[in-house]
Specification:
This protein is of the alpha+beta class and 311 residues long. It has one domain: 2,3-Dihydroxybiphenyl 1,2-Dioxygenase, domain 1. A 10-stranded mixed sheet has the order 17-10-11-12-9-13-16-15-14-18. An 8-stranded mixed sheet has the order 2-3-4-1-5-8-7-6. 19% of the residues lie in helices and 30% in strands. The chain is built from 6 helices and 18 strands. The longest helix is centred in the C-terminal third of the chain and has 14 residues. It starts with 8 loop residues before the first strand and ends in a 14-residue tail after the last helix.
Length: 311
């Protein structure tokens, strides 16, 4: 049986990092996000729309996602989610007054999913007092009422993960593929995805995606990253499931950030979940292009004529 109350969006992501300055420059220069606040303890908050923040950088001695923040509509829904989580045998901790103030929210609970990944559910997300101003030329992000984009985590035992996020938090399955499961909680094709966690992995975060309003912004982000000398994980391509046109880049923590445009939306009244096979003999393996940058550098992909391509 599905959850009675569902979360409505991936509202924010906390990032633990030993390189706050590097992340700050990356988010400002490559993605175009705006710093909205800084705390005395070193936390840096980033905006991408009219919300007070969407990302929180936290100084740490390790680099990984610190938590995902999942939004609900009101206090009643927060109480209902807390009950659903507790009924699943997971301990829920109410947010302290300091926690709620730090998250610019009206209410908050904390818990860990069955694999131990930290989650926060909140309501009353604060809107900023001033308009959003990107730090470089940009049309802005597709975020309003759909969340910051999507987050993808490595999960030990995807079947168990899907069951929890579906039956307890109200996510719905968009589709599955050779690499994992993709789930939505609003019209965005997926706000959450899980890739199987392989032996030896120590980082839970695989990547987060931000979706621009215009395709040109993906190209501009790609060019800026090349000029900065950043390392790409893939070149530009299009996924067969969500149909985003995007590229993947290594962020300062060593995992990935996806800059995207053009995803299709989910209409739950007609949506049919699908399965996508991963062809093992295809270098792209993720849709058209999305060639691995290492394969490009090794000469396994035909080089184009763009003067900076593959740098």
């Amino acid at each position: 049986m599905g959850a009675k109350v569902s979360v409505s969006e991936l509202g924010y992501i906390g990032i633990d990092t030993a390189n706050v300055d590097g992340w700050t420059n990356f988010l400002k220069e490559v993605t175009g996000m705006e710093v909205s606040d800084k705390d005395e303890d070193g936390k840096v908050y980033f905006r991408m729309d009219e919300r007070q923040y969407r990302f929180i950088l936290q100084p740490s001695d390790h680099d990984d996602a610190a938590y995902f923040g999942l939004l609900v509509q009101n206090e009643d829904e927060l109480d209902a989610i807390a009950s659903q989580v507790e009924e699943a045998g997971i301990t829920v901790t109410p947010g302290t007054a300091e926690d709620i103030e730090a998250r610019h929210a009206l209410g908050l609970i904390k818990f860990r999913d069955p694999s131990g990944f930290p989650l926060e559910v909140y309501y009353g997300a604060a809107r900023a007092r001033t308009p959003y101003h990107p730090t470089r030329a940009s049309s802005g992000f597709k975020a309003e009422n759909m969340g910051l984009g999507h987050g993808v985590i490595h999960y030990p035992g995807i079947r168990e993960g899907v069951k929890f996020y579906r039956d307890v938090l109200g996510f719905r399955i968009s589709d599955v593929g050779g690499v994992g499961a993709f789930m939505h909680c609003n019209p965005r094709h997926h706000s959450l995805a899980m890739f199987e966690m392989r032996p030896g992995m120590t980082t839970r975060m695989n990547h987060f995606m931000v979706q621009y309003n215009e395709l040109d912004d993906v190209g501009l982000a790609f060019d800026v990253a090349q000029q900065r000398g950043d390392k790409f994980q893939t070149l530009i391509g299009r996924h067969p499931n969500d149909q985003n046109i995007s590229f993947y880049i290594f962020n300062p923590s060593g995992w990935h950030t996806e800059c995207a445009w053009g995803a299709r939306n989910v209409d739950d009244t007609v949506w049919q979940s699908e399965t996508y096979e991963t062809p093992r003999d295809n270098l792209a393996s993720m849709g058209w292009n999305h060639f691995r940058h290492a394969e490009f550098e090794a000469g396994l992909v035909v080089r184009g004529t763009h003067p900076g391509q593959g740098r």
